[in-house]
Amino acid sequence: MFWQTSRFQVDLDRPKVMGVVNITPDSFSDGGRYPTTSSALRHCEQLLTQGAHILDIGGESTRPGSPPVPLEEEIARVVPVVRHAVSLGVPISVDTYKPQVMRAVLDLGADIINDIWALRQPGATNVIASYPDCGVCLMHMHRDPQTMQLSPMEGDVTSQVLSFLELSAQSLLARGVKKAQIVLDPGIGFGKTVAQNFALLRYQRALLVAGFPVLAGWSRKSSLGAVTDRPVDERMVPSIAAALLAVERGACVLRVHDVRDTVAALAVLEAMQNA
Length: 275
Known about the structure:
An 8-stranded parallel β-sheet has the order 8-7-6-5-4-3-10-9. A two-stranded antiparallel ribbon has the order 1-2. It is built from 9 helices and 10 strands. The protein is of the alpha/beta class and 275 residues long.
């Protein structure tokens, strides 16, 4: 199995680690740490030395309650970093839901669009359909970042997430996007209760029936803090535990902040599986 992206075919037979690069002042975990192009690029390079296979660059926080960032500001944050990051030799993902940002970064050579809205913003699907090989990650989100945790989902979360992601993927296929370009993300923490997030982890294999690779984004999430009573900067161990459980349940891509330790944990899991 592979993920077709603009410049790379990403082999998903072994789990891939996607390192998070937030160029934001207010992200829940590392907001404000990489405010300039040079600091963000140094972080990109550091994540690669730690073993990241993919870099995910974002210019707008989507934590619960976060306000939207104006288009011009997001472009000013993201484009200079992407312009240099595409020379680093790995797939570059951009975390955005704005069609104008998608087009700008894909024109620079970005490989993947990682969209929390699953291309529901007007014009987003048209952008993806006009770049024949770009990868796309479709995420499930209940409501929007401003309201998603004020009124979380109700009922059977796994079946609802599966249905949404299947419909989103099928609509892309109908526009001529190839199956190999699409990865699905259940959207841990995006409009779900703590119990629902862990239900998605427990029953994650149910999402595989859609026929697409699954990306898991548990890194430092508040649900891990809820069950461990640890603040966000002390959630590396629970994050890695959730990541390994996600891989055992079929996840092919892990979106993480703690790249080095996640890569080490995956090496242990692989050694056990190969023994």
